[in-house]
Amino acid sequence: MPRLSMRSVPVLPFEEMHGTIAAALYMGDEGREAERKEDDDVSSSSEDNGLTENQNRLLYLIDLHTSRTNDDESRWIRRQALLVLLYDGIVNNIFDYDYSPQSTLVENRRIWINVSQEGRSDIELLRDEELLNALLVSSKSYKPVVLYQVSDKGHDLLRTLARRDKELVNSFAHKPESRELLRISWDGDSYWLESSSGYKRRSSVTE
Which superkingdom is the protein from (predicted)? Predict the structure, then answer.
């Protein structure tokens, strides 16, 4: 599959995106340069689906944030929000990736953020294997923003995911002792993982 590029994916104005898609972008106009181009009764061990443990868990994490709503409307996750989730998954021992500081533009302000190049490579691999859909849109400041969601092929593969992997990702991705998903927000200084009921914890991704 060709890599995502400005030419291969339509660029839509951020303001004109469908409401449910916009809601999945985790408030905050994080202008970014575009990238260069289940069941509960599953057994405790995954079938060999060709993916590594990290890649399986990454795909499931993206699925949690992009599964269709009760109204059958599609959702997407911003690439920047996904990179923050990846970092927090690393420090919570969900992913076995390395990370290093990288200069990043957020709301027209350049900051240092801990980014996993291995995690980024696995996102690319999931795209190449057609397990992820990608969409390129423009932010309110007219900067390109990449969005992801799990494809139908990806959903089929997740049926083989081990219960243990799901439980580990769920324990990290949700409010403690709850099924409320933690979404990424930016307050101008820090990234936060927030639930719909108001629970939140600060990410150390910018430290």
Answer: Eukaryota
β-strand partners of 156: none
In degrees and rounded to multiples of 5, residue 56 shows phi and psi of: -60, -45
- CB within 8 Å of 142: residues ≥ 6 apart: none
Q: Model confidence over 145-167: pLDDT tens digits?
A: 999 999 999 999 999 999 999 99
Pair type for strands 100-106 and 109-115? antiparallel
78-122 pLDDT tens trace: 999 999 999 999 999 999 999 999 999 888 889 999 999 999 999
CB neighbours of 25 closer than 8 A, spacing ≥ 6?
A: 76, 77, 78, 81, 145, 147
Distances (CA, A) of 142 to 30, 47, 146, 189: 11, 43, 13, 21
Tokens of 196: 């719909």
Residues contacting 199, CB < 8 A, separation 6+: 175, 176, 178, 180, 182
- 3, two tokens: 């890599």
Q: What is the token pair recorded at 200?
A: 């939140």
- Burial zone of 166 (CB within 10 Å; 0-12 exposed, 13-18 middle, 19+ buried): buried
Task: Provide φ and ψ at 175, rounded to 5°.
Answer: -55, 140
Say if CB 126 and CB 55 are below 8 A apart. yes
